[in-house]
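ok so I'm stuck.
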Amino acid sequence: MRNWLRAAALAMLVSGVLTSGQATAQVSTAQKREIAALENAIRGAGRLYVSKKYAESGEAVAEIQSRLEKLSAGGDEQLLKQLEGLQNSLKKAHALLELEGVSLPPLKELAAGGEPKPTTPTTPGTPATPTTPPTEGILFDQHVAPILLARCGNCHIRRSSGMFSMANYAELMRGPAAGKVVFAGDDKGSRIIEVIEEGDMPRGGGKVSAQELATLKKWIAEGAKFTGDANAALATIAPATPGMEMVRLEVKKATGKETVSFADDVAPLLIANCYGCHLDGMRPSGRFDMDSFARMLRGGDSGAPLVPGKPADSLIVQKLKGTAGGDRMPAGGRDPLSDADIAVIEKWIQEGASFDGPDPAQNIRQVAALAKAKRLTHDELAAERAEQSAEYWKLGMPGIDGDSLETENFLLMGNIGEAKLAAFGKQAEEVRAKLEPVLRIPGGQPLIKGRMTLYFFPQRYDYSEFGKMVEKRQLPTPWRGHWRYNVIDAYGALIPPRTDEYSAEALLAQQIAGTYVGSLEGMPPRWFAEGVARAAAAKIDAEDKRVVEWDQQVADLAASQNKPEDFITGKLPAENADILSYSYAKFLMSDAGRFNRLLQSLRNGDAFDKAFSASYGGTPEQVAAAWVRTAASGRRR
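replied:
not stuck anymore, here's the structure
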């Protein structure tokens, strides 16, 4: 990732150098503006990648790629020189995103005086399309491709480990950035043979047999030839050879008859023992990422992690028992799992390795937390959250004692004095009652199972430190409060107003409403919950100075978007996106019947996209196209 960002920075440096003197005489002002815009967009795509928003990053890269191709079409050598840095950044982005399973349009080389051309191998001695058919000896498609699929498939065909792909003949012959690995006619000097003979490759998977190695060496010695399509995927040209296909695991939904639950039994074991190396890490060890069930099934450099129905043949079990070669897992000096814990994982695999969470792509911690929250009673979950809240206070406010008290629906913590804290506890319950008709909150039951915590900080500095220490982020400057709900956490953090600078009642309403909507069974996205939260605050106090400021900014922000849904897809700064979410939520709430149906569907557990389409007759993005015309119409002139 750092290389990609450095490449983007280099692109800016090259642009800056070339915009002076005679070197840029043929580059127009409009082209310079577009280049600058694309450089900024590359940085935005990089930030999305760092935040693990891989799909959104891929969408941004695809759009940048399309714009770059249009910009370069028909351009002269001077313009293409300016675009080299951007092109290199896109190459890095492709390699990183493909590792995350993101499919992107083929990247084309820039060509002067015409349309961009498809990328082809250009290294001397590496033919893009071999023309001399082998009349005897080893055939690439019949003999070599099956070996590569079986021995190198997980690292260099399904993904591009080490920035090296063998997805097709052309990429194999081109080699990684460090240099070629196959030299036609020189089997002894070919790096691919060296690493196999040294035992360095393949890593984690089955070894290359003596017969397979002899086949590879003979093919290279005979000229490393291939007469077919150099860009055809290896998986499509290799014959179906038993035992040679790559293992691809599919998510199998639980039937309810299983005796071992992934969410309740297996996920907690993985979270407790695999964190740091395969969970919560920027670069998972062995490229084996367990942050979600879907990622776990993809496996890593050592191949598929399990064989459904066959625990003894499953790599994860072998690693936990120390029978797979290499280090026993978990590594890092941690104690091995007990026989009883390993037996739980074995039983889960034996029963089919099924998934019983809401979404295989959901973070595994959320899957486990949701299962636990459903299992615990309201009071049990409230007790756990109270302990967690106390830990967060110590982390965010070290050395500062805070007061705490409980009301029917809230746990309040803060260092603003007991009397003020009690007053805010009473006010929070009053606001909760006012929100009932706004959000159709059912009566006679807790607002949020497990109670919600409200943190109160006397000054901006304390609030900011809480964000840095607990949430590991810089809180936007305009914020005077925010909420968080992810099953594990259910809280709001606030800076009470000292005078009439803003409404305490509206601020409380925003945090309570956001946490409530975020807690609904259908798991609505944050933009929706925050939009409804701010709209609810406006209903509680329309004269609140923060609400007035939001209303004043809506038109300009709506008109400035490239697409109506930019605020939904993460393409705007946080506060700007939240203000537009607020306006959009008010638009949705203006049709009370549809909005109430949506909330009820979410309470019933319907997925957000399905519930939204059923209520409004279109996707959030489609309905946003109608909203944005209304929102932008009041733009100040």
